[in-house]
Amino acid sequence: MAQRIRVASYNIHKGIGTDRQRDPARILKVLQEVDADIVCLQEADLRFGKRTSVLPPFLIASHTDYAPVPLDVQHDSMGWHGNAILVKNGITVEHHDIIHIPCLEPRGVVTATLGIGGTQVSVFGMHLDLSGLWRVRQARAIAALATAARAERPTVLMGDINEWRANAGCFREFGKHFAILDPGPSFHSKRPVGRLDRIMHCDRMEAKDCGVHRSALATTASDHLPVWAEFALL
């Protein structure tokens, strides 16, 4: 039987909810609701100063069965330019890295090779630029690296793409190599209309289902709703 996994992407808005309160514990409760094996986070670190992790490590350890992928970039940060990956206990981190991409704003990509039930999976987490021109450049660079990964193992890409148009240039770049799922509108969480958060995958993964997680807690915890997808690894 094919290995099944559930993944999710969530822009946590630095832990600040629509009530303007910063509440890391609330974000962790939403993640428990989603119950994904692998989660890519955006805006997971504070924006200025030491860029401290929004989600304190002791809260993650004591309130969830997740562990952050250790990107080893900054001592107090969990991510790279706010991008981070969480994995459930029992999933092994075989390799991890940060990727510099062309950018107008401070942007980056995080990636990891994960061991799940005897199978390796490559994961890319991202938060793309607000500028359409830069998004295309970023998508081209990311797709090239992810295409090399998919030659070795199943590969999934997730994040806040910041793209409002269904057939925009960055989707054309990703679509040359990967299937692009449309879980549904995830922004703004109070009244979602923007399909900004996406999950993409290679042909070594079969998408079984996908969607937007909308709960009373999620509509308040961040200005984005989490998106998720379930896959069978081929």
The tally of strands reads 12
Domain count: 1
Question: For the CA atoms, what is the radius of gyration?
Answer: 16 Å
CATH class category label: Alpha Beta
CATH H-level name... which superfamily?
Endonuclease/exonuclease/phosphatase
* Residue-averaged pLDDT: 93
Layout of helices and strands:
Layout: E1 4-11, H1 24-34, E2 38-42, H2 57-63, E3 66-68, E4 84-88, E5 92-100, E6 108-116, E7 119-127, H3 132-150, E8 155-160, H4 169-175, E9 179-181, E10 197-201, E11 205-212, H5 218-221, E12 227-233
Parallel strand pairs: 1-2, 7-8
Antiparallel strand pairs: 1-12, 2-4, 3-4, 5-6, 6-7, 8-10, 9-10, 11-12
Description:
By secondary structure, this protein is α+β, with helices and mostly antiparallel strands. The chain has one domain (4-233): Endonuclease/exonuclease/phosphatase (Deoxyribonuclease I, Chain A), CATH 3.60.10.10. The chain is 21% helix and 33% strand. Strands 3-4-2-1-12-11 form a six-stranded mixed β-sheet, with helices on one face. Strands 5-6-7-8-10-9 form a six-stranded mixed β-sheet, with helices on one face.
Give keywords.
single chain; 234 residues; alpha+beta; Deoxyribonuclease I, Chain A; 6-stranded mixed beta sheet; 5 helices; 21% helix; 33% strand
Please provide a brief summary of the model.
By secondary structure, the chain is α+β, with helices and mostly antiparallel strands.
